Amino acid sequence: MNEIRIQTIVTGPLQERCYLIGREGRDDCAVIDPGADAPRIAARVGERRIAAILLTHCHFDHIGAAAALRGEGTEIVIHRLDAAGLTDPAINASLGMMGRPMTAPRATRLVEDGDMLDIAGVRFQVLHTPGHTAGGVCYLCEEAGVIFTGDTVLCGTCGRTDLPTGSEAQMEASLDRLEPLLRKYRYYGGH
Questions:
Q1: pLDDT per residue over 99-128, tens digit each?
Q2: Which helix (H) or strand (E) holds 139?
């Protein structure tokens, strides 16, 4: 079986981390959290087709390039509790933090905790990890030994809880849930 390959692209003024994941030799891939800099992301995607854009949450710095990268048949995947934030600048924090509205295409697939996704030959398990947002998720790829944590877990810290739909109590519960997984899997954070 072809090896899973992960590429990191740091985008935008908040230095958000976007990830490309796919199998060697395939003509498709998944993009996780394309926050900005769509031309740079597209250049790294190359000739591959983007099968899906997986969003860990709805904040503007994680969704900003989704519209430009979406091709025919590209799924837009997000937890149902964050779906409204794709089209509502008040929820996705773009008005409050950037002073201008930013939106993304509506979701084509809403996920829940425990859902299994097969995208571009890679299998992901959805883990609902609210706190940074109500619908924050992590994507666990057991075969590759990695977990994409978005802004639930960052380098040495966790995401803030003072933005729309954030909750400190939910963040604490999510971190407790993730603790054993973070010891077992390599994590890829949102910043």
A1: 899 999 999 999 999 999 999 999 999 999
A2: strand 137-141
CA dihedral 173, 179, 182, 183 (to 10 degrees): -170
Q: Where are the domains of the chain?
A: 4-189
In angstroms, the CA 129 to CA 152 distance is: 7
Phi-psi region of 62 (alpha: psi -120 to 50; beta: other; left: phi over 0): alpha
Cα separation, 20 vs 70, in Å, equals: 14
The amino acid occupying position 152 is T
Cα–Cα separations (whole angstroms), residue 140 to 4, 32, 47, 69, 167:
13, 12, 26, 23, 22
Q: Which helix (H) or strand (E) holds 60?
A: helix 60-63
**Looking at 12-72, which runs of residues are DSSP E strands?**
16-23, 28-32, 49-54
Distance (Å, whole) CA 90 – CA 84: 10
Q: What is the pLDDT of residues 11-37, one digit of tens each?
A: 999 999 999 999 999 999 999 999 999
CATH, range 4-189: 3.60.15.10
CA distance 57 to 138: 9
